[in-house]
């Protein structure tokens, strides 16, 4: 189905875009002095089309992908969902993978009827 292919392609591009932004922000963190970096964070909402909180989330996702915590092929197309995965502890992450909630080609599958923010910290303990 052509529409499905188009949606899947654009969803993957969304993931690639927020990862590229996260990696660019990580690069800035490594290049700038501590004082420059603090100023950047304080003014991020004037420099970028997102808040410092969002920038922090994007950096954390990029770090998780870089470190292999979230395999690139299992990184969801939603940065909010990807960020929720970064909040999992080692045990929760292992359980989520064992249950097929985080999987290659599919990212994170939210159990039906349950909000992601409520399922991750509690039900995977």
Describe the structure.
The protein is mainly α and 125 residues long. 66% of the residues lie in helices and 3% in strands. The protein is built from seven helices and two strands, in the order ααααααββα. The radius of gyration is 16 Å and the shape is globular.
Strand order of the largest sheet: 1-2
For the biggest sheet, the summary is: 2 strands, antiparallel
Number of strands: 2
Mean pLDDT: 84
**Broad shape:** globular
**In whole angstroms, how far apart are the ends?**
39 Å
Strand fraction? under 5%
Low-pLDDT residue intervals, each spanning 5 or more residues: 107-125
**Structural class per helix/strand content?**
mainly alpha
Helix and strand succession?
A: HHHHHHEEH
How much helicity do the residues have? Answer: 55-70%
Please count the helical segments: 7
Radius of gyration: 16 Å
Index terms:
125 residues; mainly alpha; two-stranded antiparallel sheet; 2 strands; 66% helix
Strands, helices and their partners?
Elements: H1 2-31, H2 34-42, H3 44-47, H4 52-66, H5 79-86, H6 90-98, E1 102-103, E2 107-108, H7 116-123
Antiparallel strand pairs: 1-2
